[in-house]
Amino acid sequence: MAEEKLTYEQARDELADVVRRLEAGGLTLEESLSLWERGEKLATTCEEWLEGARARLAAALTKPAEGEEPPSNGTPF
């Protein structure tokens, strides 16, 4: 079965729910392990979204604005 692609917000909210359920306790060992594994996958999804956002931000910050020329040698003069 293919893993569904969640938005960052969906993954974050589900991860918060997983943490809440694990902290509440009262689960069997198997239930706890299953939730932990789901939480790990959700955390990875969130990290991937955040890394993508960081890369997009870095690219936007280094790209010259429309009509601007990039600096030729890194000096302002």
- Characterize the quaternary organization of these chains: single chain
Q: N-to-C SSE series?
A: HH
Biggest sheet character: none
Q: Pick out the low-confidence regions.
A: none
Output the structural class.
mainly alpha
Strand content: under 5%
Number of helices: 2
- N- to C-terminal separation? 58 Å
Instruction: Using the alpha-carbon principal axes, give the shape.
Output: rod-shaped
Radius of gyration: 21 Å
Helix content: 55-70%
Average of the residue pLDDT scores: 88
- The total beta strand count reads 0
Main attributes of the structure:
single chain; 77 residues; mainly alpha; 2 helices; 66% helix
Describe the structure.
The chain has helices at residues 8-24, 29-62. It has 77 residues and is an all-alpha fold. The N and C termini lie far apart (58 Å). The mean pLDDT is 88.
What's the helix and strand layout?
Blueprint (H helix, E strand, L loop, with lengths): L7 H17 L4 H34 L15
